[in-house]
Amino acid sequence: MAADLSDAAANPLTHGWLAGLDQAVSRLRTAPSSTPSGRVTRATGLVLEATGLRLPVGAACRIEVNPGHPEYAAAEVVGFNGHTLYLMPQTDISGLPPGARVFAEEVAAGTAEVDAALRGRRLPVGDALLGRVLDGAGHPLDDLGPIDDAPRAALNTPPVNPLSRRPIDSVLDVGVRAINGMLTVGRGQRMGLFAGSGVGKSMLLGMMARYTKAEVIVVGLIGERGREVKDFIENILGPEGLARSVVVAAPADVSPLLRLQGAAYATRLAEYFRDQGRDVLLIMDSLTRYAMAQREIALAIGEPPATKGYPPSVFAKLPMLVERAGNGKVREDGSYGSITAFYTVLTEGDDQQDPIADSARAILDGHVVLSRSLAESGHYPAIDIEASISRAMTALIDNTRFQQVSRFKQALSRYQRNRDLIAVGAYAPGNDPQLDEAIALHPQLAAFLQQDLHQNVSYEQAVAHLDSIFPMANRHVSSATA
Ligand SMILES: Nc1ncnc2c1ncn2[C@@H]1O[C@H](COP(=O)(O)OP(=O)(O)O)[C@@H](O)[C@H]1O
Ligand SMILES: [Mg+2]
User: Fold this and answer.
1) Stretch 301-330: mean pLDDT, rounded?
2) Which of 44, 226, 402, 459 has its CA 20 to 30 A from that of 145?
3) Is the pTM of this model over 0.70?
């Protein structure tokens, strides 16, 4: 390079030009250092292209939307190609002119924490957030005042070493009889809640949030309609549920980046409370919309779609989010915090082959399936016990309860298989003793599985109820017939 310059300097034709350049460079050297900036070179669709800045993927930046006025749009680097950065704006960019300037976030804000900007955002955490509703960037959406005093934590945390994690070995009471009794959930377990729309996911999540024995609830409402967010907070969670919850809402009308960040932020909040040794219930509604937000971004920066329009990065992102939930490290005094998580997964038209549902089933520790036909018949919560499973359950319950649960499932499925025959009177009692027992038990089983929205059924009550349907004295009989 230096050799080139001296060659050029020797050439009288370029000498004048070089001298001018030299002067300009020395003027720049003596001038006060200015904020480095780049320029927007292309804006088509969701993603902007910018040149002139070198920022890593994930870095936060600001785009000067309206030169002359200090008006900036927050954006994030989502990829690059050669010297071109791909930026995804988080807010509206109407009015953005060609060549608009781009700054690295913390630099534009005038603080020296460039490093922090490159490593990722720092968002508010802490007890002061309980009872609050925030957006994906950590700004309050309620009118309960600012939260500027809350401590801030980096959004991204290093993953917990799987070997130093406490295994799932104690029950978390979720206050719902069918789950406590038949699909027992352990502290630190990650469950899917699979259902189509309008089948009662939000209502069930709300019941768990209100009645669970977990100390803190973090709710991530990702990609839902705005109206549903308000309904969930005001009517389903209610004041009692909200008091010990933090709600992060990133509805469908915010940028896909903020939706992803909302899910990451909700998870980060849960991690914060877990790392203090508390039991956290994390509710993420929905994992499908999270995947869709990632799909929007990935397709916009040119990743090819693979499975049903979802690019491969979607399937890499899901486990990265889900793995952050779970039990924490065991502390010195033997205690440990936990994040028990419920992720809703939309299975439209009861399509169990949906790639997101498939992927979620593989990475979660069990799933609760809600059935439209149960909901339509007024059976709430509409949990399809036969299709649902808690994979951690065998580590949580003793043999007696295992027998009870097996007998429950056998009687239920025997009844379901013959339901049409029974309904038309084509089955004559006495032909099949096991079916006779199933028919006799069915009203009790159906009653066990249903629960009023305003009723809290503890784990102990659920177990006692199971004992009353399948008394301990019958134990030897059940093991003989099983
Ligand atoms: N436990 C329940 N008891 C009575 N009705 C319910 C219950 N769960 C759901 N519903 C009915 O189903 C409707 C949709 O429930 P919702 O939880 O909003 O569904 P989703 O979140 O799956 O779309 C509710 O408005 C209500 O009418
Ligand atoms: Mg809902």
Assistant:
1) 90
2) 226
3) yes
For residue 198, how far is its CA from the centre of ligand 1 (angstroms)?
6
Give me the pLDDT at residue 19, please.
74
CA distance 35 to 157: 29
For 454, the token pair is 């305003």
> How many whole angstroms separate alpha carbon 60 and alpha carbon 53?
12
State the pLDDT at residue 168: 92
What's the CA gap between 280 and 187, in Å, rounded? 9
Q: Does residue 475 have a pLDDT over 50?
A: no
**Residues in the chain, overall count:** 482
- What would the pLDDT profile of 162-204 be if each residue is shown by its tens digit? 888 888 999 999 999 999 999 999 999 999 999 998 999 999 9
Give the Å distance between the CA of 243 and the centre of ligand 2.
21
Q: What are the residues whose beta carbon lies below 5 Å from ligand 2 (ion)?
A: 201-202
In this structure, the residue with its CA closest to atom 14 of ligand 1 is 198
Distance 200 CA to ligand 2 centre (A): 7
145: left (phi over 0), alpha (psi -120 to 50) or beta: left
4 SS3 class? helix
Check: CB of residue 120 under 8 Å from CB of residue 104: no
Q: Which ligand is nearest to the CA of 203?
A: 1
Q: What are the pocket residues of ligand 1 if the criterion is a CB atom closer than 6 Å to any ligand atom? A: 195, 197-203, 380-381, 453
Among candidates 166, 175, 141, which has minimal Cα distance to 342? Answer: 175
Decide: helix, strand or coil at residue 196: coil
- Residue having the nearest C-alpha atom to atom 11 of ligand 1: 200
Atom of ligand 1 nearest to the CA of 206: 17
| Rounded Cα gap, residues 138 and 152, in angstroms | 10
Residue whose entry in the numeric block shows the structure tokens 């038949």: 182
The residue contributing the CA closest to ligand 1 atom 24 is 200
